[in-house]
Amino acid sequence: MNRLIIRAIEPYAEAMAHATKEDCAEAMRRYSGEVRRAEWLTWRNVVRQCLGEVTISYDALGVPVVLDTPQPIYISVSHCRSHIAVALSDAPCGVDIEWRKRDFERSASRFLSLGERMMEFNYPDLMAGAAWCAKEAAYKYYCSLGRQYPDLLRDLRIEECNLTAGRMRIVGGEGPAVDVALRWANELIIATIGVEMVQTGLHSAQTTDLEEE
Asked: Most CB within 10 Å of its CB: which of 59, 96, 128, 185?
């Protein structure tokens, strides 16, 4: 399996109606607000729509894991204010989505070195958001391997960057480098590792793998 699903967050009442009783009860326990409950239930509803009535749990690093499948399935999840993203793969994977209009520059010094910032001259206005998403996706990918690199500035470094091609190469600690695919679609920045994402150019949108409701 190799699939990326991105959908609008369901309204709270719909998310509850589509969820299992166990997920509804857990959402009530975990979160006090309806917005966070809707986000959490939406991505779990997506997983069950794709895989059936599987058990969703978390490992020691807090990575979501799917049980009760004939073959191991890796999962990575992200959400922003309007959408959720779910990556499902037979191998370790990572995904991050963010609202493009978020002010990434405000905290860029916490996750982006001066050398990394200078890597991209053609699209300097996109570099901070792209770097944040790419490093978040890399963090999740490494966690799925049992490695944790929590400091995006010190633990994860950008080795190569080509925003025109929608690619970054990131190294975490002493681990192997990983290739991150980047795309800008429907006001979202999307970064993935280990799942295929159609990339035809900067700002391109492919409705075949951007599913919205």
From this structure: 96
